[in-house]
Amino acid sequence: MYIGVDGGGTSTQVFAFQTDSNKGAIVSAGATRQTSVGWDVARGVLVRTAEQALGRIGSTREDVVGLSACLSGIDLPEQSQKMVAELSVSFPNASIEVTNDAMAPLTAGTNGRAGVVLVGGTGTVAVGESSDGEVARAGGYGYLIGDEGSGFDIGRRGLMAAIRSYEARGPATALWEVVQDKFQLSSPNRLIPVIYESENPIAAVAAFAADVVAMASVDVVANGIVDRAVRAHVDLVNAVYRQLPDVDRRVVLSGGLFRSAGQLTERLEAQMVDTEFVILKHQAVTGAVIRAMRVTAQDEEGVWRSVPWQQIESSAASL
Fold it and tell me: Where is each ATPase BadF/BadG/BcrA/BcrD type domain found (predicted)?
């Protein structure tokens, strides 16, 4: 019995998978980013959600032999060690890995092999893993000091450009009309409570990114914002490849930015002609299950490469 977790700042998925029967269950829950909700809440959500998933296939926490929790906000070894220690109490028979949430889509997109992932959602990060387990990372520093080219970054620049255009202190852009229509506003000051009094202001700003990207083909200002974002994506990917030069030039694209905006992929391909970009087709949490299997066989060379990917994929697709 294996548990994979794809935990983010707004939502979390837990996938329980039993190899003997090929039975699986996926349960969704709220945020598990410990820097936002705290260690106790994050651990509690993980354990309760795992119990729900296990219960659906008639298993318990004691049956779990491998667990990989890929969590947003896990960036340092001491953070990982702390969560491993806390989860070990609830899963006493499991080998446990706690790592950054980018590792789930990376492993899902490469079927557990070496590769690079570029995650573009509310935030951005590029992560690579070599065949011998060396991990390299670029970006992922959050909306205050990083996340260049992210949904938040694109959305914020788009909203700012719209306001500046309305107030005649910036280039003219049709983005203001888009803001008006999207938020049903008559003037920019009406946008203040819409954003600042929302349940999640960061997500509210990031939600405008899709509108900016959609306008890029017909609006010069929007096009400039998107070009800037793509250049940031290129910088992130190249930074990882400088650290892992022997990894194949094939990048998995994960996150809402790339699922809903095909032109971002096209622009990346135009700027990095020596690199293949593929949209993640599987649920990221399936990668976490593969990692859960790997962690139980980390001292047995090659074992993790033979994980039952087809069975995992089939089980996840049916849920």
Answer: 3-290
Spatial distance between the Cα atoms of 141 and 139, rounded to a whole number of angstroms? 6
**Count of CA atoms in the C-beta half-sphere (13 A) of 147:** 19
**Whole-angstrom Cα distance, residue 75 to residue 244?**
19
pLDDT tens digits for 237-249? 999 999 999 999 9
Q: Do 35 and 52 reside in the same domain of the chain?
A: yes
Instruction: Note whether residue 25 is domain-resident.
Output: yes
110, part of any domain: no
Q: Which two tokens stand for residue 231?
A: 């250049």
d(CA 290, CA 97): 12
Query: How many C-beta atoms surround the C-beta of residue 84 within 10 A?
Result: 16
Whether 7 contacts 33, CB under 8 Å: yes
pTM of the model: 0.83
> What CATH number should be reported for the domain holding residue 32?
3.30.420.40
| Tally of domains in the chain | 2
Q: What is the distance between the alpha carbons of residues 146 and 119, in angstroms, rounded to a whole number?
A: 14
Which residue has tokens 């930074």?
239
Cα end-to-end distance, the chain, whole Å: 17
DSSP string across 33-58: -HHHH-HHHHHHHHHHHHHHHHHHTT
pLDDT in tens, 217-276: 999 999 999 999 999 999 999 999 999 999 999 999 998 899 876 889 999 999 999 999
Q: Which of 318, 200, 211 is nearest to 256 (CA)?
A: 211
- Whether 152 and 258 map to the same domain: the answer is yes
Same domain for 184 and 83, yes or no, is no
